[in-house]
Write a structure and sequence with these properties.
- It is a single chain.
- By secondary structure, this protein is α+β, with helices and mostly antiparallel strands.
- It folds into 2 domains: 34 residues; 164 residues.
- The chain is built from 3 helices and 14 strands.
- The strands form 3 sheets. Strands 3, 4, 5, 6, 8, 9, 10 and 12 form an 8-stranded antiparallel β-sheet that branches. A 4-stranded antiparallel β-sheet has the order 7-2-1-11, with helices on one face. A two-stranded antiparallel ribbon has the order 13-14.
- It is elongated, with a radius of gyration of 44 Å.
- The termini are far apart.
Length: 251
Amino acid sequence: MADKSDKINPTAKLPPVAAATNGGAKSQTYNAPRPMYRPKPPSRRRGSRSCVCCCCLWITFLVIILVLLVAGAGAIFWLIYRPQRPDFVVDSLQLSQLALTSSALTSKFTVSLSARNPNKKVEFIYDPISVSVFSGDAAIGSGTIPGFEHGAKNTTALKTNVAAAGESLDADQVSAMKSAIKNKSRFPVKITLDTKVKVKAAGLKTKRVGIRVTCDDIRVAAPAKKSPSKATIPNDKCNVDVRFKIWKWNF
């Protein structure tokens, strides 16, 4: 006699793999094999990025080390030698010729200066020096001083002729100069010196560094006939500025 349970549930004895739901439902398979795990290889982009980052870090580290070494060497040099800038003073300025037209100027100056090196262990080596004379913004003369070596604790006398031949001026500059000549009054004059200098200490020489010397607050009148006019000069020292050149710009 057949078992009643077999009649009521005919699908109970079917194996789990082949079992299916009634009504056309999708079959369901049990104990299917899982796909094998395969790790992905490392991306090449990540490797290249890490190399670039390492290179940047090393370059930054080397730059910082070089800056610290240069700063340390400069500090040691300063502590040992205590370098100071040279001093410049205008001893005299004479104007022997001054002629004006409607747009040009002709002039001749004689300039005498003193350069003093206040350092005990530092010497200066100057390139040729360019000398310019200005009245306001107008250039009214130019000249040169030969280069020289400036020993420690030494004062050197410098003298040069500064002249202009047909220097172009604008209408306002000509008018101001003519007014001063007519009223026999003194007009302001400024002297600038431009050169490059090496610093020498303990047998070592630095690279050339640009300097500009500015001497202002000088006043001079036009010469009377053939007698040169002597300028009034303040007792103040001239300003000495170090000028660094980066590509096309001076600082």
